[in-house]
Design goal:
The structure is a homodimer.
Chain A lengths: L25 E2 L2 H9 L3 E8 L2 E8 L1 E3 L2 E7 L3 H7 L4 E13 L7 E11 L2 E2 L3 H15 L12 H6 E7 L2 E7 L17 E9 L3 E2 L16
Antiparallel strand pairs in A: 1-10, 2-3, 2-6, 4-5, 5-9, 6-7, 6-11, 7-10, 8-9
């Protein structure tokens, strides 16, 4: 997935990606951005349709310096982006609640990436097939070889959009609350309530082939 | 938090909230929408700034038929909404990956809500104080009585925005994959890989008062 060998360690800062609020939490580090993207299964994709901001949650995957999404070819949000509407993609991991001694200094620990730009449609069937495979391989490495590939009709019904990682920034908060000096003596617990996405035991399909009962694999 | 007694069970369907893709997954059920909102700590808020779609992840809370967010008064996205820019809020719970026998029928189990509308600024200090309390009570009931309340300067530095739950819709997918009839005999595991947000052991602040060591409470 990575071909960052000849690229700068840092993304360029653009007017739209320059972080003004909480600049100490900002990062343009390429590997950090890649990690935040790859650790997530879904992103939120926003654009403007009929003059109004709109948004969908959807799965994504990354190939080098591009992030990809897919959906129904007739989806109005994907369609607007395909026709040239600007998009904004956001990926967020909530890592914990930061419980301070004052209301004001409560916060969250998180890792997020925001990407701005136009999308490019993957228009040929070979490209769509390859991206079907890449997405499937993100979900479960090796699975692609065991399932039925998309047929011509399914490829036609699916739109794939890629976005360059160019106007991109990350924001990260980690660690303890930061209270005002005079508040540290207040009689209240303070610290972090950590949280994370956890995979449960795979649930067999009700119509599973008996030979495959219990063979589901949790994502890594 | 709920005052739905005299309201219809269902939200009205508006042009912008009419779900065209996957209409069987759509819902306008008021209690379902409230539950999806209340179960989440963060939402994604999109709007248009300088002609470009943009987005932030942020915490939210609900009071009856309004959802609230807050942030730095000088935040450019909140500022644009405060000045009348349309917004779109999305709340998403990823509940699992749906592993089908064909690439095309892979999916996700999820619960999401999308809200469209303009935001209204909470402009008076009493309202800001009350919303500080309501947000804190969502994080940990009873905590408000133990922490330092926001002072005048902190209230001034914080913007609170409320959005009516009017143009709102939910989308939910649950349960097994749905494969094409002829694919059920394929030799591959199929089912759901469930996931959820899990709270870990609270982490004491490094500067914690010794009397409060180990006293952190996981959210419910």
């Amino acid at each position: 997935m990575s071909d960052v060998l000849d690229l700068p360690d840092q993304y360029d800062v653009h007017p739209v990606t320059k972080i003004v609020r909480g600049p100490k939490r900002a990062s343009y580090d390429r590997k950090l951005v890649h990690g935040i993207i790859d650790d997530a299964l879904i992103c939120h994709v926003g654009t403007v349709v009929n003059g109004r901001p709109t948004m969908i949650p959807t799965a994504h995957w990354r190939v080098g310096e591009r992030i990809y999404i897919h959906g129904a070819s007739k989806n109005r949000i994907l369609g607007a982006i395909a026709e040239g509407a600007e998009a904004c993609l956001c990926i967020t991991h909530l890592d914990g609640l930061v419980m301070a001694r004052s209301a004001f200094h409560h916060s969250a620990n998180y890792r997020s990436v925001v990407i701005y730009g136009k999308g490019e449609v993957v228009s040929d069937d070979a490209g769509k097939m390859e991206h079907s495979r890449l997405f499937m391989e993100k979900l479960e490495p090796g699975r692609w070889d065991t399932i039925r590939e998309p047929n011509k009709q399914e490829l036609k019904a699916t739109m794939f959009l890629g976005f360059d990682l160019n106007e991109v920034s990350a924001k990260v908060r980690a660690g303890d609350p930061v209270d005002d000096d005079e508040d540290y003596s207040l009689p209240v617990w303070a610290g972090v309530l950590p949280c994370q996405n956890v995979w449960g035991t795979p649930i067999d399909d009700a119509k599973i082939d008996p030979g495959f009962v219990g063979k589901g694999k949790k994502p890594e």
